[in-house]
Amino acid sequence: DTGVSQDPRHKITKRGQNVTFRCDPISEHNRLYWYRQTLGQGPEFLTYFQNEAQLEKSRLLSDRFSAERPKGSFSTLEIQRTEQGDSAMYLCASSGTSGRSKNIQYFGAGTRLSVL
Amino acid sequence: AQTVTQSQPEMSVQEAETVTLSCTYDTSESDYYLFWYKQPPSRQMILVIRQEAYKQQNATENRFSVNFQKAAKSFSLKISDSQLGDAAMYFCAKLTGGTSYGKLTFGQGTILTVHP
What we know:
The complex is a heterodimer. Chain A has strands spanning 5-7, 10-13, 19-24, 31-37, 44-50, 53-57, 65-68, 75-79, 88-95, 106-107, 111-115. By secondary structure, chain A is mainly beta. In chain A, the strands form 2 sheets. In chain A, strands 2, 4, 5, 6, 9, 10 and 11 form a 7-stranded mixed sheet that branches. In chain A, strands 1-3-8-7 form a 4-stranded antiparallel sheet, with no helix packed on it. In chain A, a hairpin with a 6-residue loop joins strand 4 and strand 5 (44-50). By secondary structure, chain B is mostly beta strands. Chain B has no helices and 12 strands. In chain B, strands 2, 5, 6, 10, 11 and 12 form a 6-stranded mixed sheet that branches. Chain B has a 4-stranded antiparallel sheet with strand order 3-9-8-7, with no helix packed on it. The termini of chain B are far apart. Chain A binds chain B through residues 31, 33, 35, 40-45, 48, 50, 55-56, 58, 91, 93, 97, 103-110, and chain B through 4, 33, 35, 37, 43-47, 50, 91, 93, 95, 99-109.
């Protein structure tokens, strides 16, 4: 296993279009997180899953955003009717619940979204 | 809301010298985790070091060490024998929700430049 994988790496879309991002966590990790990072800022929490259950959603996650983790493995983040303000890097992270790496979040390379 | 503050937007250091990055945080929890993450330009975020709040001993990972002052809610990162590869954005982060789960709250980041 090579770590957290995100696809695509870059997405350019026109305002009003829908986009979907995918995250594959480290295989034995049962927790999966989504963050958004704008240029020069720290990541901001969006939502997180434990297995397939979505346990917390940030106020940043408007009705246009939806995240799923249907089988407790990979996750998707969909943005409907994109706006220019959605342009950002979307980061996925995963963590385990036991062992030395407990509670350490490992990050993927991110998906950079540009809304024109 | 819990906050993490990095008061140094930019720092610079000469190769082989030592530099310290500052971080303060706000919390009402008695036990929690603190982290320093490194994000090189256009590359993914990687963990530098982790500190568990109940441990008195400061964490150390090779050239990286922390000065954890729980009462002062301060968590600084010291990089010894700085190398060109240490150049990156550094983020201080706190795991909310205690130690068993939760999101990371990040500081604003400190850009570290290493001069040859």
